[in-house]
Amino acid sequence: MNFNDTPEESAFRAEIRAFIEAEAPKNTPRNAEGFAGGSTTRDWFKKLAARRWIAPAWPVEYGGAGMSVMQQFIYNSELAEARVPRPGGIATGFAGPTLIVHGTEEQKQKYLPEILEGEVSWCQGYSEPGAGSDLAALQTRAIRDGDDFVVNGQKIWTSGGHRAKWMILLARTDPDAPKHRGITYFIVDMKSPGLTVRPLINAAYTHEFNEVFFEDVRVPAANIIGEENRGWYLAQTTLSFERSNIGSAVGARQNVEDLIKFARDHRADGQSTIDHLSGVKTELVDRYVEAGVATLMSYKIVSIQAKEGIAPGHEASVAKLYGTELNQRINRTGMRMLGLYGQLSGENAPMHGRIRYGYLRSTANTIEGGTSEIQRNIIATRGLGLPRA
Ligand SMILES: Cc1cc2nc3c(=O)[nH]c(=O)nc-3n(C[C@H](O)[C@H](O)[C@H](O)COP(=O)(O)OP(=O)(O)OC[C@H]3O[C@@H](n4cnc5c(N)ncnc54)[C@H](O)[C@@H]3O)c2cc1C
What integer pLDDT is reported at residue 28 of this predicted model? Predict the structure, then answer.
């Protein structure tokens, strides 16, 4: 296997590196709560928008850069290597692609341009208290009333719901149909009367997700994407996104490198971390090897996608499962090394408090986007041909 770039890929990588070098915010403080938001990030996204790099996978006719899977891989790796904020999320990853494939021309004109400016955020109203892994069990009801639907019910774990302008909502429009067939896909204005967003504070003490309540919320029928009762199938829409998880593999390697540097440089009472913590050297070596494995998995997936032209199936689940569980192991090793310093956050804390935050936040990584158990089920049945339990 040849891991080297082709001449074209190498030129593309150089173009992105030069752009980052010239335009990206310098020393973006990757603080405990992730990237610093605010005007620095907004200015950076404006520059990306001018290059059509907010949604680089989208087709050119819809304002994307039409990047190939391998170009996206290079783009994602270079932004991750430079530790600069990366655009993404529900708007570019889910709402936009669904509109591109299933939306009317009017809907595309209305919603896509503002997504590409990189300033408007969307949220995803899928999960409910009784419907997560078994999403098709969702109960939020939408009942037709003239030109509108009236929505009642509750969503939960709605990331960014407190900042979003729009929500993509899955609601049940035909309770008598088999559960996958009575669901419709709506766009909902988050300022609609009757819609309430209540914060949920996560284990890392940050406000990331929310509960969203619908009490007689009127949603115009014109806000349905695709056909009524066909929402389940739309929810599976993705464009040709690379699914290698390279950003998180790069992040894992960088965190391990930071910990190795800390172990080399840090001394307490005249002793290095390695001297006074038994087994930490071995742990660091294990994490270093595992971060390398995660990177190789990303290469494997992107080569399946790019060379064979097929979307990875269980391989993407392997990378998600391994990468998120590795993230937890790295942060556990880090917390052991940092001892009491591991409780500090802020610019003066070791590694700007990233390990502290990562230790608390990485639990969620193995739940969001499909839990580890669900990934194992997918790998067992679709990858290994084992029978369903
Ligand atoms: C940080 C974060 C952000 C999120 N953001 C959003 C968002 O923006 N929008 C949104 O709609 N949702 C969001 N979610 C919700 C997420 O999609 C669900 O939490 C996830 O799908 C699991 O559903 P659940 O929490 O209802 O758990 P459940 O499905 O009830 O699962 C509970 C436990 O049972 C296990 N389990 C369930 N079914 C099986 C099975 N068949 N075999 C083996 N084990 C099983 C699970 O693995 C888990 O351990 C977010 C979650 C997190 C953690």
Answer: 59
Of all atoms in ligand 1, which is nearest to the CA of residue 161? Answer: 8
Q: Of 212, 234, 256, which marks where a domain is finished?
A: 234
Residue 327 to residue 208: CA distance in whole angstroms: 19
> What residue's CA is closest to ligand 1, atom 18?
132
Is residue 328 within 8 A of residue 362, CB to CB? The reply is yes
Give which of 31, 42, 26, 124 is closest to 82, Cα–Cα: 26
Task: Assess whether 74 and 130 both reside in one domain.
Answer: no
Q: Summarize pLDDT for 101-151 with one digit per residue, the tens.
A: 999 999 999 999 999 998 889 999 999 999 999 999 999 999 999 999 999
Interval 46-64 mean pLDDT: 94
pLDDT attached to residue 27: 63
Range(s) of the domain holding residue 191: 122-234
Q: Is 140 in the pocket of ligand 1 (CB under 6 A)?
A: no
Distances (CA, A) of 20 to 38, 47, 374: 19, 10, 37
Q: Are residues 217 and 135 in the same domain?
A: yes
- Ligand 1 centroid to residue 328 C-alpha, Å: 18
Q: Is 114 a catalytic residue?
A: no
Q: What is the CATH number of the domain that holds 33?
A: 1.10.540.10
**pLDDT above 70 (res 32):** no
Q: pLDDT averaged over the chain? A: 92
277 lines ligand 1 (CB under 6 A): no
